[in-house]
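Database export, one record per block. Field names are fixed; values are copied verbatim from the stored entry.
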Amino acid sequence: MHTSTLHKTLSFVHALLCAFCALFFITALSGCRPNVNYIKRMQALEEGVGSPQTEEEIVAAIQKYQGRVEDIMAAQGQVGIWYKILGVRYLDNRMYGEALGAFQQALSYYPDNQNLYYYVGLCAGYMAKTELDSSASSAKKRAFYLDLSENAYSRALELEPRYVRALYGLAVLYTFETNMPEKAVPLLQRLLSVDTKQTDAMFVLARAYYMTYDYEAAIDMYDRICALTKNKAKLAEAESNKKAVLDALYGGAAQ
């Protein structure tokens, strides 16, 4: 599918989701989340329940519309899932701004979902990379997206401290985007305690060690990669990086 056509299609789906939200009258102070009391009031009018007084009337009222209230709430949860699916589709097509918006919408339905916070962090990081010029407005936008990315990854880790993808994403952000490798080190150490053979994380950790002048730790990490990987490209990269660290450590005398 042509990129412009795909963009129009996904945007149309996004608009349909927004319309679906409005259809169920679910706007609340926190965003598009179910307002149970409002739904019940509308349901009472529709079912002719009114204000039951006796026990029999109350039981009859419950039987008439409690199940339908739950069905409506379940439908709203499904909208949150659709927003996540839409966000993933946008992300797959490198439409990072649209993906970011979709994942943020999904969070209004599932505010304690660590996966959604991870995706927000990932998309915000990509958006920061798009602000390449040196203007003040671009620098401000880049700072905004980097801050959003950091906060989203951090929230994901508050919800799930051993969440490997969020640990990796935040460590990459600290190492390569915000020049704070000292913050990346404990994150990557935690990650490798969960996934002991994650060579991508080892490369970032070795880089963070190098940036913090812990050359021996960086060399040990590259040795660890060489012992683990069967990928020729990764092996060559680890050996080359190790030599560069040895040169820095011994003033270019390493062989």
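Remark 1: The mean pLDDT is 84.
Remark 2: DSSP finds eleven helices and two strands in the chain.
End of record.
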